[in-house]
Amino acid sequence: MTTTVLPARPVPVRAGRSPRERRSHRRRWLLTAGLTAVAILVVFPLYWMVVSALTPGGQSQSSEFYLWPDAPTTGNFTEVFATQPVWHWLGNSFLVATVGTALSVCVSLGAGYALAKYRFRGRGLLYALFLVTIMIPIQVTLVPAFLVVARLGLVDSPWAVILPTLFDVVGIFIARQFMLGVPDALIEAARLDGAGELRTFFRVVLPSCGPLVGVLVILGFMNRWNDFLWPLVVLQGNESLTVPVGLSTLTSNPAFSSPWGAVMAVATVAVVPLLVVFLVFQRTFVQGIASTGIK
């Protein structure tokens, strides 16, 4: 019995990359390097803030460059939280940001729905007037708004910060653009089934606005948490201040040997709520921005 030995198949030799593949590979590496450099530029201020908060007073005032302190310490946190009402500042900011954002989102959703789905005389003019108010600087309305708040007796209270910011033109614009994509046939079908206007809005329109709500929550919470000028005008007592205004008082406070260490310590703690809110709503935020831009 004879066995036949088949000749071995030649192993194909892979040719080198074509010029097009080499160019694509080079562009991909350049894009990765560029994005990495941009990411470092964005993250480095946050890293430096944490490093400065952990740096002892003497080293933080020196002109020597360092990427990590020789002896990290939490003394800046202990000192500023023991001598200043930082917890009151954080509580005030959290109250203003959460309540103001919740009420502003409700106003933006209602106004956006009305401007997108209701037909009434003067709708275009009203919407144009809304957009014009974006170009008015806050310094123009600062004194009239303060006089109104003073007449209502709200000075030095959280409501003095919350109420004037309920009407968010940018939020209304984003809500209108998003709701233009909600099918009119869906709303008409709900009305034919006997649903009233409120039931149509809450049962049909609102469930499809999850990405929109994520966008409005993140933008609203961030703007109110970081707001400085208006709280500086209407809040007066040291325990009534919000975090940005309270931080401005630390730089001239003689109680600290290293005011910038105290400032960075409070700033490090103040960043945490913003990160938490963004991480919770990041997926809907990206979807909402993309949908609003497409529509």
TrEMBL record:
Gene3D superfamilies: MetI-like (1.10.3720.10). One of its GO terms (cellular component) is plasma membrane. It is a multi-pass membrane protein. Keywords: Cell membrane, Membrane, Sugar transport, Transmembrane, Transmembrane helix, Transport. Residues 90-281 form the ABC transmembrane type-1 domain. SUPFAM superfamilies: MetI-like. It is found in: Cell membrane. One of its GO terms (biological process) is transmembrane transport. The chain crosses the membrane at residues 29-50, 94-116, 125-147, 159-179, 200-222, 260-281. Coiled coil: none annotated. It comes from the Bacteria. Its main location: membrane. InterPro entries: MetI-like (IPR000515), MetI-like_sf (IPR035906). Residues 1-20 are annotated as: Disordered. Belongs to the binding-protein-dependent transport system permease family. This is Multiple sugar transport system permease protein. It comes from Krasilnikoviella flava.
